[in-house]
Amino acid sequence: MHYFRHGRIGPFVVREPLVLGHEPSGRIVDTGPGVDASRIGQRVSLEPGVPCRRCRYCHTGAYNLCPDIAFFATPPVDGAFAEYVVIADDFAHPVPEHVSDDAAALLEPLSVALWAHRKAGTGIGSRVLVAGAGPIGLLVAQVAAVQGAAEVLVSDPDPGRREAARDFGATAVRDPAADDLSGAGVDAFVDCSGAPPAVLAGLAAIAPGGRAVLVGMGADEMTLPVSALQGREITLTGTFRYAGTWPSAVRLAASGAVDLDRLVTGHVDLDHVGEALAPGPEQVKVVVRP
Ligand SMILES: NC(=O)c1ccc[n+]([C@@H]2O[C@H](COP(=O)([O-])OP(=O)(O)OC[C@H]3O[C@@H](n4cnc5c(N)ncnc54)[C@H](O)[C@@H]3O)[C@@H](O)[C@H]2O)c1
Ligand SMILES: [Zn+2]
């Protein structure tokens, strides 16, 4: 959506025509040399970024940081709004028959949420604040609930989105325009809005020793309350996609612990991709069915 609307995400700039789409599922129709041909016909969820496998990040498992990763729909690599794509066989993860095509596609944003929680250090009994109740925030909230968080606070200015958050694991919702979150004392704050005011409000809500994880992409730069971060020893990190999340994502979808199908509010074909990329606030996830 950032590429479609703004032509860039941080340092990644679209300079020539680019096929978008990086949350794909499908069925294997053919295999290349050296790949197990018995996989033809298998239903798969595609992990859209294939790293170089040779650099120090790849060697230590932090392959999301690989400088040579080829990631669908990140310039200059074309994405998955297409009938056919080619990907390394180990990045085509098999999904059980009872996981829908839509859910298999949404293992990608689920992976973003799983990675955010890994960075946030959340677990049973945690108090978590999530800013932004778009697809990513709703998945972060769901995963918090599945992990046994004691409190899952979700803030969003949009009343419909706050309502959705209640359906997806929030124990309470907040309107950032009306509710003061400072002093809430959460263990972890996960920003899924990219809005600087949300980040500042979230930082003020963290208990001493807590963590802040910036997932949302909006402002490239913002001013931070340094003395508050120091005085409360807050750990602040960003996240970049994910690494090694598909196996757990597949299991969470297969067991029904995380509900992905309910995030889907519409479908379009390849001729109407623009509608999926400019959804109204009433839409959560629009899936493209080629
Ligand atoms: N770091 C990563 O690897 C990564 C991966 C995927 C997505 N993202 C980013 O995560 C963000 C969320 O993605 P999405 O698809 O859910 O987007 P989205 O635009 O659907 O959701 C953002 C939500 O934030 C809400 N919001 C706006 N201002 C707010 C405020 N002050 N306080 C609280 N909420 C506020 C909006 O109303 C909206 O519901 C995007 O910025 C996206 O680019 C990052
Ligand atoms: Zn690498």
TrEMBL record:
Q: Which domain of life is it from?
A: Bacteria
| UniProt name for this protein | NAD(P)-dependent alcohol dehydrogenase
CDD domains this protein is in? sorbitol_DH
**Alphabetical list of Gene3D superfamilies matching this protein:** Medium-chain alcohol dehydrogenases, catalytic domain (3.90.180.10), NAD(P)-binding Rossmann-like Domain (3.40.50.720)
Q: Which organism is it from?
A: Pseudonocardia nematodicida
Cofactor (UniProt):
Zn(2+)
Going by the UniProt record, its keywords in alphabetical order are:
Metal-binding, Oxidoreductase, Zinc
- What positions does the domain Alcohol dehydrogenase-like C-terminal occupy? 135-254
The entry's family comment says: Belongs to the zinc-containing alcohol dehydrogenase family.
InterPro entries on file: ADH-like_C, ADH-like_N, ADH_Zn_CS, GroES-like_sf, NAD(P)-bd_dom_sf, SDH-like
Locate the Alcohol dehydrogenase-like N-terminal domain: which residues? 5-97
